[in-house]
Amino acid sequence: MSTVLDFWQLLKPRIMYLVVFTASAGIIAAPGNIHFFLAFVSLLCIALGSGAAGAINMWYDRDIDLLMKRTRNRPIPAGRVVPDNALEFGMVLGILAVFIMAVSINYLAAILLAVSILFYIFIYTIWLKRRTPQNIVIGGAAGAFPPMIGWATVTNSISIESVILFLIIFFWTPPHFWALSLNQSEDYINASIPMFNVVYGPAKTRKQILIYSILLVCISLLPALFLKKNLLYLALTVLIGSIFILYAVFVIISKSYTAQKKMFSYSIFYLFFLFANIIFCSLNL
């Protein structure tokens, strides 16, 4: 018997929380004003869109999820949700999210939301994930759309500022996920998923984590060009960015499960703190 909790898990709520938070930063950092209720509706649509993509991803990946320790207890491989129900659930949520966004906010935000959902499903899940070690690098674009959607919610436009917010998440995704995949290599081998560390080995993956970490920290400085409290933003961003790079260096030096787990955990904190910093430094306080 399926429960409400099972369908909630289909939405990948932990990813949804980050998606909504980064989208909030796009709304708050954008020039102009928007009614609180419309901002809430936009975030709700983005949350529903994220959940829809997650549900359809779980439907498509149910065969490999069953082969991996990390995912075998998900609702579909565990037998708690019928695959067809998960697909229908995801499709309804996705269509509803895009429709409400188009009707209540603007067409550009709705188009960006639709692109992010379709990119995650067709480009990442169906095309890249099982075919190339660059799956996370290219596929990470799907998770980078939310702040751009938030920006478009307010301005009905795409600007260099929203692209910068997009790029932050785009370059954050590889070191974040590779730190996890290094500790899950056996799972990916069993499921025949060509993760970077499986194809090219742990040593090259750790070097790539450091390279992407440095690029990420450099790009993360760019919002200072358009935020109100730019000096405060720079100071805090340099601090947390330096720690991020130190964790990446420690991953190379230590080559241990613990170092990689700490890198993964800190990367989540880093993204949250960075976008909290963007939000705070956008406010007139």
Automatic annotation (TrEMBL):
Keyword Cell inner membrane: no
Reactions that this protein is recorded to catalyse: heme b + (2E,6E)-farnesyl diphosphate + H2O = Fe(II)-heme o + diphosphate
Keywords: Cell membrane, Heme biosynthesis, Membrane, Transferase, Transmembrane, Transmembrane helix
Gene name linked to the record: ctaB
Coiled-coil zones: none
Anything else known: Carbon 2 of the heme B porphyrin ring is defined according to the Fischer nomenclature.
UniProt family annotation: Belongs to the UbiA prenyltransferase family. Protoheme IX farnesyltransferase subfamily.
The organism's taxonomic lineage, starting at the top: Bacteria, Pseudomonadati, Pseudomonadota, Alphaproteobacteria, Rickettsiales
Involved pathway(s): Porphyrin-containing compound metabolism; heme O biosynthesis; heme O from protoheme: step 1/1
Transmembrane segments: 15-31, 37-60, 81-101, 107-127, 148-172, 209-227, 234-257, 263-283
Membrane disposition: Multi-pass membrane protein
Record protein name field: Protoheme IX farnesyltransferase
Subcellular location per the Swiss-Prot or TrEMBL entry: Cell membrane
HAMAP family found in the cross-reference section: CyoE_CtaB
